[in-house]
Amino acid sequence: MTTTKGLEGVVATQSSISSIIDDQLTYVGYRIDDLAEHSSFEEVVYLLWNLKLPTKSELDAFKADLAANMELPEAVIAHLRSYDLSTVHPMAALRTAVSLLGLYDDEADVMEEAANKRKAVRLQAKMATIVTALARIRQGKNPVGPKKELGFAANFLYMLNGEEANDIEVEAINKALVLHADHELNASTFTARVCVATLSDIYSGVTAAIGALKGPLHGGANERVMKMLTEIGEEENAIPYIKEKIANKEKIMGMGHRVYRNGDPRAKHLKRMSKELTKITGQAKWYNMSVKIEDYIKENKGLPANVDFYSASVYHSLGIDHDLFTPIFATSRVSGWLAHILEQYDNNRLIRPRAEYIGPKTQEYVAIENR
Ligand SMILES: CC(=O)SCCNC(=O)CCNC(=O)[C@H](O)C(C)(C)COP(=O)(O)OP(=O)(O)OC[C@H]1O[C@@H](n2cnc3c(N)ncnc32)[C@H](O)[C@@H]1OP(=O)(O)O
Ligand SMILES: O=C([O-])CC(=O)C(=O)O
């Protein structure tokens, strides 16, 4: 038996959803650069679930279906109100709320393909509502329901802020959602696939995936990037701060990637957005500081910025609370998790690797009074 720490380089499944080849990311063969420039998030979700781009009428119907499924059951809202949101992290609250949502779905354990697709729409739609409701409830405000005429990104900001966002803000969130939607067999997607490969239900798969995304080595890094930038405070402190972290063998959040060696193709889009948005808000220092850190780490450690790095200053510029950064990631990535869950069900086999045992050799049992 040979073991590979962290399963590096192990090809664990076949998939038709997204690919990373030679540092290029595609969804169903479409380049991420094209999708980021031209697509709505709904169009991308349709693509990931149906493996084809929608026609205009298919997209209109899909958008309407998502908007119609955004409302939360009253019991779920009541439950969100019962959390102590002054101490509970929104990712923990989201994980619990998605699990709870399964209790209010009559089809939760119905395994037919059509029922699974209906649940996928409900979950995708309601994730946005849960995240925004959590954000409002903890500010002592009432959740705001969706406006049926708004697209997903616009509705997200409307439900978050209680007023319609401007075009620049909607475009920024739409692009961020497109860029985060899927990423081959990342840790949270693998978690979802392992879970449902036991033929467990979609809610269990997504709940497990949220737990995996929450960690700082994965989706949780974006919040920590902003924590780091805030601690640095001013541009001139950036390099001394980073040097000290490196000397202490601490990781720089938002840097490095298991698969990309020469750069994450999503980062340049977020970098551009960060530059534009920080200029608009008069807070260019967040962008300038980020560039300094990126350049230093690239030059001294050979590590590129990943998707989490510039998303931090983008979300901050949109006035979003830092602990909502990872829930926003989840609101997008649930589309990828659901695509992979549907693909796993379609051609399922239990996922059960082996472990190389390195514990003590066979030992003689000793009765408790003799230990
Ligand atoms: C959406 C996403 O999930 S993108 C990733 C988000 N996560 C982060 O940004 C957290 C910071 N980055 C990291 O921890 C890593 O780069 C990961 C987890 C993303 C990838 O990890 P791996 O490919 O397994 O690399 P691993 O953690 O084994 O590190 C290899 C070497 O590079 C170093 N390294 C890797 N990333 C970093 C970093 N961000 N800062 C400093 N050093 C780093 C490690 O210390 C290690 O050095 P060593 O060999 O001297 O001990
Ligand atoms: O693929 C990975 O390991 C992490 C990542 O970038 C993502 O999930 O978007």
Automatic annotation (TrEMBL):
Stretch forming the signal peptide: none
Q: Which InterPro entries match?
A: 2-MeCitrate/Citrate_synth_II, Citrate_synth-like_lrg_a-sub, Citrate_synth-like_sm_a-sub, Citrate_synthase, Citrate_synthase_bac-typ, Citrate_synthase_sf
Biological process according to GO? carbohydrate metabolic process; tricarboxylic acid cycle
Q: Record's family? A: Belongs to the citrate synthase family.
**Pfam families noted in UniProt:** Citrate_synt (PF00285)
Q: Which GO terms describe its molecular function?
A: citrate synthase activity
Reactions catalysed: oxaloacetate + acetyl-CoA + H2O = citrate + CoA + H(+)
Instruction: Output the SUPFAM superfamilies linked to this UniProt entry.
Output: Citrate synthase
Active-site positions on this chain? 257, 308
Alphabetical UniProt keywords: Transferase, Tricarboxylic acid cycle
Protein's name according to its UniProt entry: Citrate synthase
Pathway assigned in UniProt: Carbohydrate metabolism; tricarboxylic acid cycle; isocitrate from oxaloacetate: step 1/2
Q: Name one GO cellular component term.
A: cytosol
